[in-house]
Amino acid sequence: MQNTQWQNIQNGQLMYLEEFLTPDEADILYQTLMDTMPWRQESITLFGKTVAQPRLQVWFGDKAYQYSGLKLEANPMPDLIQKLCDQCSRTAGQLFNSVLINLYRDGYDSMGWHQDNEPELGDAPVIASISLGAERKFALKHNNGQDKLAYQLKHGSLLIMAGDMQHYWKHALPKSRKVHHPRINLTFRHIK
């Protein structure tokens, strides 16, 4: 595993580990999740309209999670995912107790600009995200409208957002016509 160095940015901290999992570990995890997860396409409320999310997802954790009018009920983590959760907790220096797993079926599935700042995540949420499958661009922009960052999230990588990131920065997984293969990401968090 790479050196775990935090990158200090305006109003936050980031850590990106390109090879958090070995290629074999990433391949096995990707295929296991594709084959065994009870994927669902949920609907959310945006600007007063109910729409189907452009991705599939699964929620595991000891508490429910709510965002954009959607409530995800508590479900115990399978052993495989609990081991990853523990590994991410050690790397981030933050105890995680839940995970939102997203399946982006191709480049047309996406995640719009948002902040993970729901009250149940606490004052300074730490979010750890493992990427599997197709490489995708992950974009960040500061609320000041000027500072922007982007990462090409590779198969088996880990990105951690910490500090005040969720108050001052928005992030997104933009659509891409060039991506024709699925991507899975596991976003670990601590629900209070």
Which superfamily, in CATH terms, is the homologous superfamily? Answer: Alpha-ketoglutarate-dependent dioxygenase AlkB-like
SS field, number of helical segments: 3
* Count of structural domains: 1
The description of the largest β-sheet is:
7 strands, antiparallel
Question: C-alpha Rg, in Å?
Answer: 16 Å
Using the 3D structure, state the CATH architecture. Sandwich
Annotated CATH topology: Jelly Rolls
Record field, number of beta strands: 15
Shape label: globular
Taken in chain order, the helices and strands follow as: EEHEEEEEHEEEEEEHEE
How far apart the termini lie comes to 30 Å
**What's the level 1 CATH class?**
Mainly Beta
Mean pLDDT: 93
Characterize the structure shown.
It is a single chain. With 192 residues, the protein is of the alpha+beta class. It has one domain: Jelly Rolls. 17% of the residues lie in helices and 41% in strands. It contains three helices and 15 strands. The strands form four sheets. The chain has a seven-stranded antiparallel sheet with strand order 1-2-13-10-15-8-5. The protein has a four-stranded antiparallel sheet with strand order 9-14-11-12. A hairpin with a 2-residue loop joins strand 1 (7-9) and strand 2. The two termini are 30 Å apart.
